[in-house]
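Re-run with default settings, no changes from the original entry. Doing this only to confirm the output is reproducible before filing.
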Amino acid sequence: GVIGRWEVERKKKEEDAHLMVPLREAVGLQGERVIVKVPFSPNDLLIWKQSAGAYREDPERTARVVKMVIKTQNLDWNDLQVLLDTIMDSTEKEMVFKAMTEKAREMIRLRLVDVTVNDLVPRKYPEWDPNSTGGSRRLKAYQELLTEGIRNGIPKTLNWSKLYSVRQEKNESPN
């Protein structure tokens, strides 16, 4: 009946809710810890897009949402590109990549890392293996750079109305 079908649908939704994480820990054939990919749903993307809001209006909010999604879902490089394509237009995405590239160059200049800009901010699928220490570390670095790139991708604008509201008194010096 209707109640039985509803119960099956409810259980299916509960099961689906547990399959949202793209990179999830599992046990390998020899009992070792392995990372496996479990795809997220289009509905997840819709929710994240709504949560992120308009990037140009509030880059900080978008960065917080992306950081939360990364933290809870552990997105790989491809998933991050899908997320960006969902929450941003191509111009916004380019601004983020520009900010990421600038940060990567700064890290290289300060000798914080011993790799190239392309290693830190690959534009093509880098084939990082999340089961290797190096691949996992590179993915984490990319996730952090991405969050920072989102936060800093939109140039900060001056609030001219606040600037014009500042008045110098007759007895004050201009310095």
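The first helix runs from residue 2 to 17. The first strand starts at residue 23 and ends at 27.
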